[in-house]
Write a structure and sequence with these properties.
The chain is α/β, with parallel strands linked by helices. The chain has 15 helices and 8 strands.
Length: about 350
């Protein structure tokens, strides 16, 4: 027993050293592409890109003056899914930056952002985003573009700060009903997701996740799959789906993604976000409608009829709202069909013309 304890302690110590070396190496290899901005309880990463002078700004003329709204060209602001980051927009944001000012950022604890330890819910995240934009000197109005969980954040933003919003694009949004009317089994799975995320943070702190991802990237399948199954078939299936989606991103983004998911704070952030889902859904259920601004809701063709109907109701919140069903796309439309997302942003910006 004593020998086993000594061996276990030695493995943990070796894992901690392995994790420390890897984290230090990652910090040198993958510096933030944008900058870190203080939002009060920590720093969030924000990346701002704009068209070259004299190029595409002419394509998006100034919107008509509206009482209480800034008479400026809207800035496009991207918000990612529940555990995703600015990297998930790599097929969309650079192309939007060819014709409009484009801003992507990482929520607390994700990718290059520090963990701010602020309360996590749709409204608190929206307020934190507004503080970030103000601190980074990015004035309104904004066209808000979000995917999945990020759509809760931008809907809260549009509800709480309507004068700052010129338009909205929702990419396969989640909606309150699916989280407020969960069956007992679904609630258990959600609690299990929070628990597994916290377990992931512990495993990341001792180098297990880093080793797991390194083996996966090097082509090993048996070791990673066996390790994932230790935490159940659902964990293994989730890992497989995540890996498949990551591989659809530009290949030069893979090392940075691997580096970010090798750190404990990414898993703690995921636990915070998953734990906030029902609270966030309740906030959005009672939020103000998006209002009279251009609105496009993109629905994955893989969605069932009930979800399509919910998306249609969201689009109907604005008299200038529309729904587009993307026939050949799954939930990650921004990766599967980035052209559709870019076109939707163009449409919304075009609707801001006088």
């Amino acid at each position: 027993m004593a020998l086993a304890a000594i061996l276990f302690a030695a493995v943990v110590a070796a894992g901690i050293v392995y994790q420390w070396i890897g984290t230090s190496r990652d910090a040198r290899r993958f510096p933030p592409p944008g900058r870190l901005v203080d939002v009060g309880r920590g720093r969030l990463h924000i990346q701002i890109a704009a068209p070259k002078p004299g190029a595409a700004y002419e394509e998006v003329r100034r919107p008509p003056r509206v009482e209480g709204r800034h008479d400026e060209i809207p800035t496009v602001v991207f918000d990612a899914g529940i555990s995703a980051s600015s990297l998930s927009w790599l097929k969309v944001a650079p192309r939007v930056a060819e014709f409009a000012r484009a801003v992507s950022y990482d929520r607390s604890g994700l990718a290059w952002s520090e963990r701010t330890h602020s309360p996590v819910s749709a409204r608190s995240l929206a307020a934190e985003l507004r503080v970030l934009l103000q601190a980074a000197a990015v004035p309104p109005p904004y066209v808000l573009v979000a995917h999945s969980f990020g759509t809760f954040v931008v809907r809260a933003f549009a509800s709480d700060f309507p004068k700052d919003v010129a338009g909205v694009v929702l990419v396969d949004p989640i909606f309150p009903a699916e989280w407020l009317t969960m069956t007992p089994a679904e609630q258990r799975r959600l609690r299990g997701g929070v628990f597994l995320s916290r377990v992931g943070a512990v495993l990341a702190s001792v180098g297990f996740v880093r080793l797991f991802l390194d083996l996966l990237v090097r082509g090993s399948r048996t070791g990673p799959k066996s390790a994932a199954r230790m935490f159940g078939s659902e964990a293994a299936a989730l890992l497989t789906r995540l890996v498949l989606q990551v591989r659809k991103l530009p290949e030069d983004a893979w090392p940075a993604m691997r580096a970010h998911w090798s750190r404990p704070r990414a898993f703690l952030a995921m636990a915070d976000h998953l734990g906030s889902l029902r609270r966030s859904a309740a906030e959005i259920a009672t939020a103000n409608p998006i209002g009279d601004v251009p609105l496009v809701v993109l629905t994955a063709g893989s969605q069932p009829e009930a979800a399509r109907a919910e998306h249609a109701r969201i689009a109907a919140q604005s008299p200038r709202g529309s729904q587009v069903v993307v026939a050949d796309a799954g939930h990650w439309i921004l990766i599967d069909e980035p052209d559709v997302v870019v076109d939707a942003v163009r449409r919304v910006l075009d609707s801001c013309r006088p």
